[in-house]
Amino acid sequence: MFRRLQRHAVRDTITSSRLMRFAMPRRLLTLLTFFSLLVSTGLAADPPTTGPAAPGQTKGLEDALRNLRAPLAGGDPLPAQESWKKLKVPDDLAIELLGHEPDIAQPLHISFDERGRMWVVQYRQYPFPAGLKIVEYDRYIRAKFDKVPPPPPNHFRGADKITIHEDTDGDGKFDKQKTFVEGLNIATSVLHGRGGVWIMNPPYLLFYPDKDRDDVPDGDPVVHLSGFGLEDTHAVASNLTWGPDGWIYGCQGSTCTAKVKVEIEKQTRTTDFLGQAIWRYHPELHIFEIFAEGGGNTFGVEFDDHGRIYSGTNWGKYRGLHYVQGGYYVKGWGKHGPLTNPFALGFFDHMPHEGNADRLTHTYIVYGGNTLPDRYRGKIIGPSPLQRRVHVTRLEPMGSSYRTFEEPFLVTSGDNWFRPVDLKAGPDGALYIADMYENRISHVDPRDNWHRQTGRIYRVRAANGTRQAAFDLAKLSSVQLVELLKHPNKWHRQTALRLLHDRKDMSVAALLQKRLRESTGQEALETLWAVFASKGLDEETALVALSHANPDVRRWAIRTCADANVLAPATAMRVLAMAEKEPDAQVRSQLTSSAKRLPPAQGLPIAFALLRR
After folding, report:
1. Contacts 24+ apart (CB under 8 A), 139-143
2. CATH number of the domain within which 579 lies
3. Using one digit for the tens of pLDDT, what is the confidence trace for 200-231?
């Protein structure tokens, strides 16, 4: 028994290597985080109003109300056009108002389908789930409810809904709106693919089939996952995103629990964790796993051009974290609990940051579009609802990770109600901003004094930009989708790859295998991902990828092969040789991550080879 525990201990500490910044565990205070929320902006709060937690009936409520007050913006909300006029952008950019109340209220998440239509999650039920009663608040203002809500269609009907917005005449305005589904209860994100629509609706991951793409669900939703916590509805599971490997990625914030079960397989085993994490789920294999664990508060999941994952944070002066597979990251150990691995020897920290140090607390992107000025390419662009602006941050390599440097703001506002909470790059390369337009933004006060009637959507584009004609990528052949992998806009490449994963068309595998041998740079990496999507990653092709001149291709070849949890013999020999001689730091970092997933006979020699260097 001891030998088995020892073996697992060695495997589980591989990622804590000298290839990434390393620190021993330590307790981190959260008082500065709390006080920065209190003094961020605004006037004193109004007296408590009646909400789902009644004084004298909810344990811990009196202490919460006595000790916490959420600052308000103050004043009255401005009409949408007046608030828009108070937004400022650089001279070579333009900002447009695309939608507002009553059609849009409390927008939380934006995504685009293969037709270029914008889908918006309207978080109108926030912060109190319908049909539930809060019976207790703990010392961290985490709510305990009287029951677990049932999933749709037999759910407690809430106010959240998913809307679709379309530009039918190509003039750049979304002149057509429809509702895909309404009555949801704490729905946080929407994702398209695999013949339908995925909705994160904690505690559930739901799939609404829509094979005919008529924007009407073909039937009741299928519950794929259950068990995501609801204790803090500003930090619940959210931000569904397709990875280039065909997995669905998501995140969970710092003050929620999770006991995730794969319901579609009728599993009884759960994956348990407390606090912040990046997780992923395979929609066909029905496998759920924690991809990386920890962080300040994981707002968002972003893949850059190279398939690296980043997430925002609410941890003081930093801009976020660069997550590696299997990594353990800093967290507030008392409030957020321990790491799931008791043998972890340490954790990775945030990317070091220089420049403006105001807290950047929400989702962000690494811009990969092609229509904004070149100075934004490869930069972090993210909204800050606390500071009422949109930040731009430069990434610079540091070992196998990055450090960040603040650059001039993209958007600022003179309206204290401006609360940008999500930002996405669209098919046209422009930036789309979800503004909850809210009197308050702090979650730490349990009173119900939210302004749920307002919300706006903005677009930031190049001042001299042109409009994009209507399209439908689903109508392209698989060969045409392969050609689209060369597109200069990341959105088009990612969507083409997602459609190839949907189809699993093996007829293009030979074309892609040939192209992998001949291509370089970004095209080679996109081709490798497409080879995998088309079921063409045989051992011969894997060996080609592992020897490719592009380190990103080598890195992803290691990851893709090791995700099967065992390597073919020739592949194992090649990967071990890479551990001995690989010059690229990020490839070596992936070797540590992948070694952890392999049987000891394959993983330990990789770890020892890296340690000898």
Report:
1. 139/60, 139/63, 140/255, 140/335, 141/64, 141/68, 141/232, 141/255, 141/443, 141/444, 141/446, 142/231, 142/232, 142/255, 142/256, 143/53, 143/230, 143/231, 143/232, 143/446
2. 1.25.10.10
3. 999 999 999 999 999 999 999 999 999 999 99
